[in-house]
Structure prediction request, 564 residues.
Amino acid sequence: MDLDSAKPLIVQSDRTLLLDVHAAAAGEARAAILPFAELEKSPEHIHTYRITPLSLWNAASAGFSPAGIVKVINDYSRYAVPPGILEGFADIMSRYGKIRMLPPETGDTGDTLILRCEDELIAREIEAAKVLKKYLQPKEGPDGARVFTLRLIDRGTVKLELIRLGWPVKDEAPFSKGEDLDLELRKISRSGRAFAPRDYQWDAARAVCGHGGPGMGYGVVVLPCGSGKTVVGMTVMSLLKTNTLILTTNVAAVHQWIEELLDKTNLEPESIAEYTGDSKSVAPVTIATYQIITWRPDREGDFPHFHLFRERPWGLIIYDEVHLLPAPVFRVSAELQAVRRLGLTATLIREDGAEGAVFSLVGPKRCDVPWKDLEVQGWIAEAICTEIRLDLPENLRIPYAVAPPREKYRIASENPHKEDAARQLVENHPEDQILVIGQYISQLESMARLLKAPLITGKMPNPERERIYAAFKRGELRVIVVSRVANFAIDLPDASCAVQISGSFGSRQEEAQRLGRILRPKGGKNAWFYTLVSHSTVEEDFAGNRQKFLAEQGYKYSIQHWTA
Prediction:
């Protein structure tokens, strides 16, 4: 068989999809299966995807049908598809919508909702579930069907427990309108540039807002870093025109949201407030950090800043970097199901496996644009990803061999040869603006001294941090060394090269965020992403896991060996 012309997909009866990355249509197939399959493994030649109940429910909520999924699989499958799994898709997807959450019926109190099941067996199963007994009250509906009432405040909790039982809820209960806000997008930004959301940004915003009726107004948008997720958020705000609470990762991201809103909308400064450790004010549009929301004086105490969620009649909550949503915000989100919700992220991967909670409490995935598609269209830069493997110095090999597992990782991460390799890479890119990113502060301090570059860490005061970012944007600094604080929501549009000297074990999430720092389009210039890895150590194993996300997006890593 000519592998170049062969269909790229091999479908197995355990619901795994094997993608031959060398087949001619591999890119098309990857984009076609992403809405309903999740990447598991990505070695050099064959990538493994798995179809899970959650991936199928996401597809169902986005309007995909079992027949459509079967067609994609048949179109790209190299061999005959095992027939049993196709019927299985339909059964799983049919569960989405079998339970609906609806407004109260005539005679019910205004602080209740109705849970309606499509058939009696489902109703019986739910009634028998011990975990739901304290939330649901069975009753007979006006048409004789068995329904349940629940309190408004339990709306999110019930949805979360039901998805754990294998029953995703289609939430058609009404939203609170929120206080009106006159918000329009500018055609000419305040900075004097023509502005209009790109087609994919409009499509993403419309996918969340829909027709404005039941079952719409909430969900998650997955777009690459550098592709303008903030613009999607502002576009949703312009469609809904309501008071909005925006939660994001750090103070720098708060300030970037404020700058973007002032530049690209008709909002005046008095309509926008910052709620952080530096400033605590509230306005029709308020931007807060997850850190301030989840702060409490002791581990057993209350969260004193949760009052922000009830400070105004919000009509929309935007969760920036929703894949990082902390557990306490999940809990309060369960109570805020009457507010429209938008999650923005470059990856729905959560290292704690809580993707189901995001689905239940924020919403299903409404839009997922492949990174490579935007790269081909020129909306993000083409990235060249290289892993550089370095041997451990002779004097560290015995300490590494006898160290416990966690210490092994740190010894490998802080391999001193990485300093010379990073310095050489910086010298090899004299025309690029470079981020050197790492995990361990002592290593970063040494790196900053070697490169004579400023170091940004979480302990640096925000004004000083933003002064350095501004100098980098103006081209006055060519290299900055950054800790994990630069993983999230930092807008450095001219950064074109990243050198990753250490990371958070096998976090694919972090890999995506760090690559995203250099993906802003740069007039046809490539972006360069280097990862320094100690050869034949646990760091090499973790690096393989970190590459999974990039492989899912269609990026290929080349591997080079560096000799001291």
Remarks:
- The mean pLDDT is 86.
- Residues 132 and 546 are 38 Å apart (CA to CA).
- Residues 538-552 form the longest helix (15 residues).
